Amino acid sequence: MTTTPRFKSDAFEAIHSAASGLHRSGVVGKQTMREFDALCLAEAPHFDAKSIAAIRKAAKVSQPVFAKYLNTSTSTVQKWESGAKQPSGIAARLLQVVKKHGLDVLV
């Protein structure tokens, strides 16, 4: 399964598309393409352990309930909140949505 890249803006998407075409034709190397990726692609949000716990507490739910909403395990939420593990990809985006709109948006 491949994911569709998220770009910082439409302009960055156009620039990246042009660079990708040049890369496919062999004019632009891998290193240059990595640099374009870093410049043009939007990164997943970063949450530290305290901010994850704060999001959950603001939603007024326990770790097991929070885990169910995010479709993950209770141990994963515990690891996030202790700083042993970092949420990435979809999990980080879901945390961003919950922080902004609350847990009810996932129902």
TrEMBL record:
- Keywords of this entry: DNA-binding, Transcription, Transcription regulation
Query: This chain belongs to which protein, by name?
Result: Putative transcriptional regulator
Gene3D superfamilies (UniProt xref): lambda repressor-like DNA-binding domains
| Database matches in InterPro entries | Cro/C1-type_HTH, HTH-type_reg/antitoxin, Lambda_DNA-bd_dom_sf
One Pfam family this sequence matches:
HTH_3
Molecular-function GO terms, alphabetical: DNA binding
Q: Where is the HTH cro/C1-type domain?
A: 52-88
